[in-house]
Amino acid sequence: MLKYSYLAAALTMACGIAAAAPNANAPASFAGNVKSIDQVATARFSALDLKTIGEEDALREASGRPMRFAIAHDSAVNVQSGGSWEQHGERSIWRYRVQADAATSLNFGFTRFHVPASARLYIYDNKDHAQLAGPYDAVSHNALGQLWTPIIAPT
Q1: What does the alpha-carbon distance between residue 128 and residue 155 come to, in Å, rounded to a whole number?
Q2: Is the peptide bond before 66 cis (omega within 30 degrees of 0)?
Q3: Alpha helical stretches, state H, the chain
Q4: Tally of CB atoms within 10 A around 22
Q5: Engineered SS bond to 42: which of 97, 123, 127, 128, CB 3.0-4.6 Å?
Q6: Per-residue DSSP letter, 40
């Protein structure tokens, strides 16, 4: 049986021509002077029904099907329709927070992924930023136009 715990992840895209953050491989939001994470637009997902999931997984295993990796939650968020924008001099910062009650981990699949040359995408555990995926940038584009991120687990 899977055990789930709470994780909040924030997706951050920093765009613009301003000087890099103090650590060039860290999101500009790590440098401070941004809105509190509690003020950022948030997608919230309720805890999963682990009893039903366990029963489904047992049936999958009994029928010889592969193990389930994750439970998908579809979303159509983009920088125009969701998230929170902030302006800091010449730099624009877009952030979006994901909270999944009792989740063991989160990972993200962007089925339509494109960022401009001046932008960077980071995904991180908001508690202490111990887990950081990215930066993803224009070099990260692939022939399918997708991006699948590593797992971010609670710290």
Answers
A1: 8
A2: no
A3: 50-62
A4: 10
A5: 97
A6: S
Query: Between the CA of residue 43 and those of 34, 60, 97, 127, what are the distances in Å?
Result: 19, 29, 6, 17
CB 110: neighbour CB atoms within 10 A?
18
Of 75, 92, 98, 116, the C-alpha closest to 6 is 98
Cβ proximity of 5 and 103 under 8 Å: yes
Position 126 scores a pLDDT of: 83
Encoding tokens for residue 106? 């989160």
Q: How far apart are CA 93 and CA 147, in angstroms?
A: 20
Domain boundaries, the chain: 7-148
Instruction: Give the pLDDT confidence score for residue 33 in this predicted structure.
Output: 86
Residues in the chain where the model's pLDDT stays below 50: 1-22
